[in-house]
Amino acid sequence: NPDAQYHAGMAQLQVGALDKAQRRWEKCVELAPDHITAMFNLATLLAERGNLVSAATMMDRVIKMQPADADNHKTLAILRFKQNLNEDAIAGYMRCIRAAPLHSDCYCGMGNSFVKIGRHEEALDAYTAAVNINPQEPGYLNNVGNLLVRHQRFNSTAQQLAIKYLLGAIELDGGYADGYFNLGEAYSAVHLHDEAMSAIRQAMMLDPERADYKCTLHLDMRKLCDWSDFNAYTSDLERLWQEGTPAGMTERSTSVATRKPGEAKSRRREKEVTMCPSPLDALSYGLSLKVLRNIAEGHGNEARHFALKHPVLHTTPWPLAGR
Prior knowledge:
Elements: H1 2-14, H2 18-31, H3 36-48, H4 52-65, H5 70-82, H6 86-99, H7 104-116, H8 120-133, H9 138-151, H10 156-172, H11 177-189, H12 193-206, H13 211-223, H14 230-241, H15 279-282, H16 289-308
Helix pairs in contact: 1-2, 2-3, 3-4, 4-5, 5-6, 5-7, 6-7, 7-8, 8-9, 9-10, 9-11, 10-11, 11-12, 12-13
């Protein structure tokens, strides 16, 4: 009985027995190849467990049977995005929007895919459309602000607009750490470093595990000639770069988080490949020889040319031969 298998899978899911839930739904689909709900749930479960290829294959089958459902297209587009197939993801989000023109999540997801392939103007259009459809979603406001902060850094008008969007995001969600951090970055871009430090400290309080928040705070302290914490800053740099890029900062999630209907969105950003701070920026500080070697190995000629623009570096002496 396929329905019995389906309900048994739901029961297993409720108690966290994911292997058993997956087997039940696979059996349900085997017995009833047109059981769309079981197929959709199975695709979602496979994605959560990191099997993106199988999840996408299952969603393709769902869409062939139910092509007018916008959420089906959105789910497949998310899976393509997670596989770094951004052109396919954009096409999927467009199909979602054709089916549901006011689907704000699809505009948001499409913006994320545009960002990944460097099409920032189109990403801004997509993010802005999401805000216009649902201005009460802090994540949409943050997306616009973050994009302006990152890609219009030297445009003061764009940074003032970013500040407006980001203030709106944290007004809607006072616990939004990324919103505060991006706000600090926007303040810094227009040389409001006191305000930047205040916003970034709030982000650190909300999410103390984010090392990049602390690094950015120190950069603003330098700009204000506040050297009170400078030793801690150089110590952080030394620790971060002793062994190259810290392992925890090179992780990329492959899971697709799912939400039950009505459940709040997560405001926590997935880890991306990042450097804290830029290793090239770190060259202007007194770091050990081992750190400089790691930076040079990772960045080659770019690091070499950067170093030539700076004064003589105050580093530990080169070891003498034979010692």
